[in-house]
Specification:
Blueprint lengths: L8 H6 L2 H18 L12 H10 L5 H14 L3 H5 L3 H8 L5 H18 L8 H4 L7 H12 L9 H9 L8 H11 L5 H14 L28
Bound molecules: iron/sulfur cluster.
Length: 232
């Protein structure tokens, strides 16, 4: 039998900005309690390696990226190391992460720019980060936040997109528009950790194919609760 819902899709449709902000605060509070230690899963030893790991993580799991970088990052540590990498060798080294030709070109080109224009150091602004090939807002937010504690936005990945929509926090599917909606709802001080708490929630509870609504700490404030195909 379908459990009785306490917050429906029509409630979400009627909700005003103030109520939605209140619900957003409640969401981050509860996710904070459930996933207090949520943090970036990619492993790296310096900001340049972080940027490389983020580029490698496109269309690939963090687990696979960490397997590849465990060896890769012993050989390449600085922007210059990556900038001078031999193209064919590097392609072979990162091949298990997928899209390896494009990723190799982006990493080498980005590190050449880093070396030539930024003295090998990761810059501290979104505008500068967006000048690197292979880096869009999601990646820039991850790198800036984790490398420098600079928070200019919210990193929107596949988990954040899916869960923001399920929770009725956005109507958009474009990550840049979703990010704008979330930035308007959540206090700036929560922008950075929001991403990692939602990712943990997506990996453990609100899974893409089988959301575990009956175990979810948000099921009384989620308009999609017990209403998606294959929920348990
Ligand atoms: S698991 Fe179910 S109740 Fe929880 S956020 Fe996802 S859809 Fe909503």
């Amino acid at each position: 039998m379908k459990p009785r819902k306490s917050f429906t899709k029509s409630d979400a449709a009627r909700e005003g900005d103030r109520e939605r902000k209140k619900r957003a605060l409640e969401i981050i509070k509860r996710l904070g309690r459930r996933f207090p230690a949520a943090r970036i899963a990619l492993r790296y030893q310096n900001p340049v390696q972080l940027m490389v790991a983020v580029i490698l993580s496109a269309q690939c799991t963090d687990k696979k990226v960490n397997e590849v970088t465990a060896t890769l990052f012993k050989k390449y540590r600085t922007a210059r190391d990556f900038a001078n990498a031999d193209l064919t060798t590097f392609e072979r080294e990162i091949r298990p992460t997928g899209f390896y030709r494009m990723k190799t070109r982006n990493i080498i080109a980005a590190c050449k720019i880093l070396d030539a224009r930024f003295k090998g150091k990761i810059p501290k602004t979104m505008a500068e980060m967006l000048t690197f090939p292979g880096i869009a807002r999601k990646s820039a937010n991850i790198v800036l936040g984790n490398a420098h504690g600079v928070v200019e936005g919210i990193a929107v990945d596949t988990h954040v997109s899916r869960i923001a929509a399920r929770l009725g926090l956005t109507k958009f599917s474009d990550p840049v528009k979703i990010e704008k909606d979330l930035m308007a709802l959540f206090p700036r001080a929560r922008w950075f950790d929001l991403t990692y708490k939602i990712i943990e929630h997506g990996r453990n509870i609100c899974e893409a194919k089988k959301p575990k609504c009956s175990l979810c700490p948000l099921n009384d404030i989620c308009p999609s609760a017990f209403n998606l195909p294959n929920f348990i």
